[in-house]
């Protein structure tokens, strides 16, 4: 008898989600196997891996839900994860790549994965989003994106009173979600307030942003959003015409001053010790001070390339390189390796917004996303029984609202089913939390029995 080699069938994530939803609704494995042309064992395996499957769908990857998903070689999976980070990093920096670049980079990552050593160095990463008006008299509170939502260094800090808008995601990038949240919750209210103060109508407002991946199409009745033409950002975008460079220059100057002041306060410290004391809290402080150092004339003058009529002064914008001698003087005062011999070219290198190196990307990809998100964070608050119950009641009320008011019965019924499917995990969690809450300590029963025994032994008293 000749051996028959069965071809493995790839099951899309979309199909797996449909199977999991129908299992939750009470459908049996046998019936589902017949419907989808799968064995009962495959259905059971999908059920067993439900958490991982649903997590892959709601993760921040750009892959489609319809992509095939099955167990694969671990090295290939790590290589692909690393390659995605590399592609996203280049997209964030607006660095073009082609098919040949991707292929060569994938080969390098694959070789690095197989021979990876013990790269341990980790660098903190933050991203700032700056926004100012053309006249230069108003610059919004900057948006800061950090990798941790609540770092230990910020323990006890009121985030609402920070000189920045604080947001976080595991890569510290300006994602579509982050940008949209900032636009709706901060940009629109702040610009409306500013125009009201100026006695101007909040009707026509022009927001200029580059068409980067993190900048989604936005719509607002009072805001017209225009995207700059491709590959012109560095030529005409006001922020790229000197505002960002000047901001970075002031930030570097403030940071070097911090190192020098730290060393002066404690003569026993080395430069390395002083750097170790630097935290995200200091970063926020220095960023706010650097932003306050920006002059209205600098903000206004940087619009010359795209809107020359609005620029008040005919003089060119003061170059940020004018601050370089002060930075070099601070570096020499600090002393030590990397400071004694600091020159103009070194500062220019610090000003470049570099992409992650291959070693950094490999190290970044090797870490679990949850660990990255919470490695430097405070202990998150627990989801209590009351909070879960409140959420379930709200979901029930929401479902009843549409069932009662939607004239399209089929649509309302489908929404009800999908809502029940979404809330199934929280219903199970609520039962589990409630069950644990009902369990009593064994010591309660021990002391109750001891008290009862003593009561029987004691004489009855009036």
Instruction: Outline the low-pLDDT stretches.
Output: 1-6, 59-72, 114-122, 368-380, 439-462
Assign an overall shape. Answer: globular
Helix/strand/pairing category: mainly alpha
- Give the overall pLDDT as a whole number: 76
> Which percent range describes the beta-strand content?
under 5%
Side by side, the strands of the main sheet go 1-2-3
**What fraction, in percent, of the residue positions are helical?**
40-55%
Count, helices: 19
Q: Radius of gyration in whole Å, from Cα?
A: 29 Å
Would you report the number of β strands?
5
**Largest sheet: number of strands, sense, barrel closure:** 3 strands, mixed
Order of helices and strands: HHHHHHEEEHEEHHHHHHHHHHHH
State the end-to-end CA separation.
95 Å
Structural description of this entry:
There is one protein chain. By secondary structure, this protein is mainly alpha-helical. The chain is 54% helix and 5% strand. It is built from 19 helices and five strands. The protein has helices spanning 13-24, 29-36, 40-48, 50-58, 74-92, 99-114, 176-197, 233-236, 243-265, 271-277, 280-293, 296-301, 324-334, 344-351, 358-366, 369-374, 385-405, 409-438, 442-457, and strands spanning 127-129, 143-146, 165-168, 205-209, 223-227. The protein has a three-stranded mixed sheet, with no helix packed on it. Helix 1 (13-24) crosses helix 4 (50-58), helix 5 packs across helix 15 and helix 9 crosses helix 11. The longest helix is centred in the C-terminal third of the chain and has 30 residues, at 409-438. The protein is globular, with a radius of gyration of 29 Å. The termini are far apart.
């Amino acid at each position: 008898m000749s051996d028959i080699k069965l071809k493995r069938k790839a099951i899309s994530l979309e199909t797996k989600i449909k199977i999991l939803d129908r299992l939750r609704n009470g459908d049996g494995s046998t019936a589902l196997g017949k419907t989808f042309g799968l064995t009962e064992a495959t259905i059971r395996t999908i059920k067993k891996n439900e958490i991982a499957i649903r997590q892959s769908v709601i993760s921040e990857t750009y892959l489609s839900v319809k992509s095939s998903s099955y167990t694969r070689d671990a090295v290939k999976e790590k290589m692909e994860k690393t390659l995605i980070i590399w592609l996203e990093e280049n997209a964030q920096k607006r660095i073009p790549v082609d098919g040949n670049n991707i292929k060569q980079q994938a080969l390098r990552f694959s070789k690095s994965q197989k021979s990876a050593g013990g790269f341990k160095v980790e660098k903190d990463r933050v991203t700032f989003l700056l926004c100012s008006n053309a006249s230069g008299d108003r610059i919004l509170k900057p948006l800061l994106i950090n990798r941790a939502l609540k770092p230990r260094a910020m323990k006890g800090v009121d985030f609402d009173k920070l000189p920045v808008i604080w947001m976080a995601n595991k890569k510290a990038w300006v994602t579509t979600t982050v940008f949209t949240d900032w636009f709706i919750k901060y940009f629109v209210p702040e610009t409306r307030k500013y125009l009201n103060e100026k006695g101007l109508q909040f009707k026509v407002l022009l927001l200029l942003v580059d068409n980067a991946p993190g900048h989604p199409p936005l719509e607002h009745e009072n805001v017209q959003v225009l995207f700059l033409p491709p590959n012109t950002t560095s030529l005409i975008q006001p922020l790229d015409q000197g505002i960002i460079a000047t901001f970075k220059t002031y930030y570097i100057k403030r940071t070097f001053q911090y190192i020098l002041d730290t060393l002066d306060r404690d003569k026993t410290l080395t430069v390395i010790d002083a750097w170790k004391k630097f935290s995200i809290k200091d970063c926020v402080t220095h960023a706010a001070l650097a932003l306050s150092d920006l002059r209205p004339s600098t903000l206004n003058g940087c619009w010359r390339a795209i809107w020359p009529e609005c620029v008040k002064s005919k003089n060119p914008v003061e170059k940020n390189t004018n601050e370089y001698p002060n930075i070099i003087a601070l570096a020499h005062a600090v002393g030590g390796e990397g400071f004694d011999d600091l020159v103009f070219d070194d500062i220019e290198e610090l000003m470049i917004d570099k992409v992650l190196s291959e070693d950094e990307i490999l190290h970044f990809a090797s870490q679990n996303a949850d660990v990255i998100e919470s490695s430097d964070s405070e202990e998150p608050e627990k989801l209590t029984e009351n909070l879960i119950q409140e959420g379930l009641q709200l979901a029930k009320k929401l479902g009843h609202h549409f069932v009662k008011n939607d004239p399209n019965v089929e649509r309302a019924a489908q929404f009800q089913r999908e809502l029940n499917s979404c809330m199934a995990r929280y219903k199970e969690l609520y039962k589990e939390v409630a069950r644990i809450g009902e369990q009593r300590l064994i010591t309660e029963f021990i002391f109750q029995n001891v008290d009862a025994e003593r009561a029987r032994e004691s004489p009855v008293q009036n």
